[in-house]
């Protein structure tokens, strides 16, 4: 072989090796959420759902961009905005360009602001925040960012759905609102008052209370106060350990009124509430579980439970995050955040449930069907917490009917 031929062959092998190395390199996604402390159960469950979705829906199907797999990198933030910023800095230092986060809107606001500043200063190492559960309306209104995409419905969108259900219940004359004392809890209370005032001005708000997040050990005094108020219904945005505690206390007081919630299922909540919540707890959520929407979703849920018998598919939006991110990368032909963001913006997508959703360009809020389900042990295919109880869909609001106007004035990169 001539020297020239040797050089050409060597260059070809080098190019092929470089291509193979790039194809094999995993695309890392930082999971910044609580993995210790009072909300560890919620964070750990979410982490396992991300890992399973990435493996089943992307990695086992050949990956993206010629065979590159997703890798979920867990980073414990202890539900602390300050700790979250430390973990964000660590992720950026490790060359990670995608962050998923959901627990606490206070954390989401801190991350959104930090990522926006980082991206302005470092256009060659931009980061995208994929928000799967932080629902403060400000995140897609006055604090919206081009680098933030929300896959859950905002607190106002969910409350609009819940208050439609309350509006149609003529037995409800008095409502007690209780929630966690931070941006999300305040947003829930504010939107409840607004929508009830518009739809049922005859309803009296007999309580509007905020409690410290993650610090109340015994919710009995709160439950006793709710019962003494004469409330016909309760509205709460509590989640994680705070929902477990509140649900347990309400059950023990024997309060027999409908309770309208955002997160009163799974993560130990369903098991704790048990029979006490039957036909009383209502949950607003995305992605119907009971009855299963179709065989595709049923197979996915069954597969997750087989691999994670002590956990649940409690946040279907996690599936949408993974699938839509993969689709955006394929359409962009790149993993670069600026190119992926362009594809996510305005994306229309059909979920495993067969539901059509769209990532609204104006504010990066996913517009999707919303469901209201009841806590029961009747006609349940998939229970929660292996308790025999689960959430059965009672009503569905079409995606177009959930969309609320936005005040977002987004600054877009040049």
Automatic annotation (TrEMBL):
Keywords: Amino-acid transport, Signal, Transport. SUPFAM superfamilies: Periplasmic binding protein-like I. It holds the Pfam family Peripla_BP_6. Residues 26-372 form the Leucine-binding protein domain. Residues 1-23 form the signal peptide. InterPro entries: BCAA_transport, Leu-bd, Leu_Ile_Val-bd, Peripla_BP_I. PANTHER family: LEUCINE-SPECIFIC-BINDING PROTEIN (PTHR30483), PERIPLASMIC BINDING PROTEIN OF ABC TRANSPORTER FOR NATURAL AMINO ACIDS (PTHR30483:SF6). Belongs to the leucine-binding protein family. This is Branched-chain amino acid ABC transporter substrate-binding protein. It comes from Sneathiella chinensis.
């Amino acid at each position: 072989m001539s020297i020239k031929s040797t050089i050409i062959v060597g260059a070809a092998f080098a190019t092929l090796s470089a291509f193979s190395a790039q194809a094999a390199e995993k695309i890392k996604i930082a999971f910044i959420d609580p993995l210790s402390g009072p909300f560890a159960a919620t964070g750990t469950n979410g982490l396992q759902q991300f890992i399973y979705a990435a493996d089943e829906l992307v990695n086992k199907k050949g990956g993206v961009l010629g065979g590159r797999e997703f890798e979920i990198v867990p980073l414990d933030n202890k539900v602390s905005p300050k700790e979250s910023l430390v973990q964000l800095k660590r992720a950026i230092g490790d060359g990670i360009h995608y962050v998923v986060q959901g627990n606490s809107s206070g954390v989401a606001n801190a991350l959104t602001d930090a990522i926006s500043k980082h991206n302005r200063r470092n256009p060659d190492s931009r980061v995208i925040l994929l928000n799967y559960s932080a629902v403060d309306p400000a995140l897609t209104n006055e604090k919206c960012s081009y680098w933030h995409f929300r896959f859950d419905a905002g607190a106002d969108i969910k409350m609009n759905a819940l208050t439609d259900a309350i509006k149609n219940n003529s037995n409800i004359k008095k409502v007690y609102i209780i929630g966690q004392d931070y941006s999300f809890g305040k947003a829930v209370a504010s939107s409840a008052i607004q929508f009830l005032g518009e739809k049922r001005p005859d309803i009296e708000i007999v309580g509007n209370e905020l409690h410290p997040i993650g610090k109340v050990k015994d919710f009995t005094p709160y439950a006793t106060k709710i019962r003494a108020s004469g409330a016909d219904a309760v509205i709460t945005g509590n989640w994680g350990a705070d929902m477990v505690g509140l649900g347990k206390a309400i059950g023990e007081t024997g309060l027999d009124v409908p309770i309208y919630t955002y997160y009163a299922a799974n993560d130990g909540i369903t098991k704790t509430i048990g029979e006490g919540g039957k036909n009383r707890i209502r949950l607003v959520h995305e992605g119907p579980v009971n009855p299963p929407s179709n065989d595709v979703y049923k197979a996915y849920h069954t597969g997750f439970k087989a691999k994670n018998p002590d956990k649940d598919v409690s946040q279907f939006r996690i599936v949408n995050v993974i699938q839509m991110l993969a689709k955006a990368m394929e359409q962009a032909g790149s993993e670069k955040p600026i190119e992926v963001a362009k594809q996510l913006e305005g994306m229309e997508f059909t979920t495993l449930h067969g539901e059509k959703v769209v990532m609204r360009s104006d504010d990066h809020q996913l517009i999707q069907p919303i469901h209201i389900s009841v806590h029961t042990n009747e006609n349940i295919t998939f229970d929660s917490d292996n308790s025999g109880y689960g959430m059965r869909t009672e009503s569905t609001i079409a995606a177009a009917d959930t969309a609320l106007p936005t005040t977002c004035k987004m600054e877009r990169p040049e």
